[in-house]
């Protein structure tokens, strides 16, 4: 089934034989690096393949779940698609505006007010002033921050902080959404709201790549699943079978 | 599958370097506003510190060089001569130092979200420029009190001097900012350069004294420092018009120096950008 959907529609994400190798570096100063070179010692130590020969495409409007245990390379893969990391071999291509619900709130500054942080972070996520002005009220409404929007963010509770950060990220103008295990934010009602919002985006034809350990949620949101184990793709197909393959491990 | 039409596809994380900063004008403005707004948070004196620090520095230099070593006898309006050089070097030190630490300081963002990373050094250099303006205002006030009036040449000298300082900060800032991610001792190297900058350019003494002390190639090497040209241009802009014609105190071939300095700065920016691009690929994993 998945084969049919990928070939029918134009892909939004192409991942081609990607390898990502991390060097566990021993030298962290120029002096150490210089002396290691003089002694002809290896400057980096054993290379570690976080991803090896992973290939898949995600069609436009498709929702795909990335499944795997901790350390299997899922988050590394999302970082490659978002552009934070670059592959050591193979290539990653994307089409349209890519935005990530990855560690929301990374750009928040505690000394700025909620309002200033909304503008700053929306701009970091690639929006211009007109787009933010237009969405500002919806962002605040979704976050349920209300009158606290003009308070400094350092006075927020952790729940308020996460709600505002998530709200900014979810309202970004996008074609491709990358989601990394952040649907655990806030209390149950807010989580429900977030899941609904992601559903809404999927319905609107946005492409999604979702990393989660929550099998129930993933089965609800995605039609296709890719299972990664120790940096290699071991399954790619309908979500129910992917979850079975995952559980069989 | 293999014959997918690749038009419209982009490689994530591959920008166009400094040029990309121009497409992110709004974000650059917000980053600058964030930097200026949060700089003196939780401090009582706030922006006054932008005046207090250079004032203290100036008083010490004036006491040692002007009063103890009696420079104010040989150099007319020595206070203005000194201050014009001090503000130029302060701008360089601040812009260069901030640019070097900008990537490491923004590690939370660099590790998680892709955006043109050149935005960070460039925004901190512009913030340094904003903090430099009050110092120029004080310098101008002092100059006007002793009879300075703007001329086309003095304003042009000031503008070119500014361009040289900013280009040099950008080139070195990109270079050391990128190196600093992998090797944190780049920071210490930068401290040495910042310390040298005050003494290796004619801020506390005059170029005429250097010419007497250094002969031949040594003087040529000294003159190759773009900051020397920038400081001399600031002297030309602010100090020279307040004197009764003391042009011989300044650099002999300033016009030639301008072209050499601009050339060196352009090379520094290119090298800085190339190294930055090379190291940028591993920023997220090295931080």
Automatic annotation (TrEMBL), chain A:
Keywords per UniProt: ATP-binding, Nucleotide-binding, Transport
Coiled coil: none
Gene Ontology MF annotations: ATP binding
InterPro entries: AAA+_ATPase, ABC_transporter-like_ATP-bd, ABC_transpr_TagH-like, Bact_Polysacc_Export_ATP-bd, P-loop_NTPase
Transmembrane listed as a keyword: no
SMART domains: AAA
Family the UniProt entry places it in: Belongs to the ABC transporter superfamily.
Name of protein: ABC transporter ATP-binding protein
The organism of origin for this protein: Agromyces allii
Automatic annotation (TrEMBL), chain B:
Subcellular location: Cell inner membrane; Cell membrane
Keyword Transport: yes
Sorted UniProt keywords: Cell inner membrane, Cell membrane, Membrane, Transmembrane, Transmembrane helix, Transport
Ranges for domain ABC transmembrane type-2: 45-279
Transmembrane segments: 51-71, 78-99, 119-148, 155-180, 217-238, 258-276
Topology relative to the membrane: Multi-pass membrane protein
Pfam family, one: ABC2_membrane
Highest taxon listed in the record's lineage: Bacteria
Family of this protein: Belongs to the ABC-2 integral membrane protein family.
Annotated protein name in UniProt: Transport permease protein
Lineage of source species: Bacteria, Bacillati, Actinomycetota, Actinomycetes, Micrococcales
């Amino acid at each position: 089934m998945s084969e049919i959907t990928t070939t029918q529609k134009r892909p939004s994400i192409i991942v081609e034989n990607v390898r990502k190798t991390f060097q566990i570096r021993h030298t962290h100063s120029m002096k150490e690096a210089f002396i290691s070179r003089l002694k002809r010692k290896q400057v980096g130590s054993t290379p570690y393949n976080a991803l090896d020969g992973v290939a898949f495409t995600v069609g436009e409007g498709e929702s795909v779940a990335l499944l795997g245990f901790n350390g299997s390379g899922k988050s590394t893969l999302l970082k490659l698609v978002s552009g934070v990391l670059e592959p050591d071999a193979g290539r990653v291509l994307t089409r349209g505006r890519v935005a990530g619900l990855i560690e929301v709130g990374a750009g928040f500054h505690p000394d700025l007010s909620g309002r200033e942080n909304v503008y700053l972070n929306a701009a970091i996520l690639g929006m211009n002033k007109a787009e933010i002005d237009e969405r500002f009220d919806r962002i605040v409404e979704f976050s349920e921050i209300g009158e606290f929007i003009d308070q400094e963010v350092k006075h927020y509770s952790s729940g308020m902080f996460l709600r505002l950060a998530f709200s900014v990220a979810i309202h970004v103008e996008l074609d491709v959404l990358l989601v990394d295990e952040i649907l655990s934010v806030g209390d149950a009602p807010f989580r429900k709201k977030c899941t609904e919002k992601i559903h809404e985006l999927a319905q609107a034809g946005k492409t999604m790549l979702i990393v989660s350990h929550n099998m129930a949620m993933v089965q609800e949101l995605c039609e296709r699943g890719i299972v990664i184990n120790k940096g290699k793709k071991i399954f790619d197909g309908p979500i129910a079978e992917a979850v079975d393959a995952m559980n069989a491990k | 599958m293999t014959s997918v039409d690749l038009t419209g596809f982009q490689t994530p994380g591959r920008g166009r370097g400094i040029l990309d900063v121009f497409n992110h004008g709004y974000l650059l403005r917000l980053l600058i506003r964030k930097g200026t707004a949060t700089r003196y948070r939780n401090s009582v004196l706030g922006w006054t510190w932008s005046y207090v620090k250079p004032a203290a520095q100036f008083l010490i230099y004036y006491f040692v060089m002007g009063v103890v070593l009696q420079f104010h006898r040989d150099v007319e309006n020595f206070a203005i001569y000194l201050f014009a050089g001090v503000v130029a070097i302060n701008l360089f030190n601040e812009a260069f130092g901030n640019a070097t630490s900008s990537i490491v300081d923004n590690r939370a963002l660099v590790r998680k979200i892709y955006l043109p990373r050149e935005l960070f050094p460039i925004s901190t250099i512009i913030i340094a420029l904003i903090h430099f303006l009050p110092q120029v205002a004080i310098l101008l006030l002092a100059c006007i009190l002793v009879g300075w009036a703007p001329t086309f040449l003095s304003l042009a000298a000031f503008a070119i001097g500014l361009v040289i300082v900013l280009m040099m900060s950008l080139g070195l800032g990109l270079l050391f900012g990128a190196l600093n991610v992998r090797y944190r001792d780049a920071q210490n190297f930068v401290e040495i350069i910042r310390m040298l900058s005050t003494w290796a350019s004619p801020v506390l003494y005059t170029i005429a004294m250097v010419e007497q002390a250094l002969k031949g190639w040594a003087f040529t090497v000294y003159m190759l420092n773009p900051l020397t040209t920038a400081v001399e241009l600031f002297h030309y802009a602010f100090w020279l018009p307040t004197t009764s014609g003391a042009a011989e105190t300044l650099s002999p071939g300033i016009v030639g120096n301008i072209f050499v300095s601009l050339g060196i700065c352009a090379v520094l920016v290119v090298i800085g950008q190339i190294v930055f691009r090379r190291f940028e690929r591993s920023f997220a994993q090295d931080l």
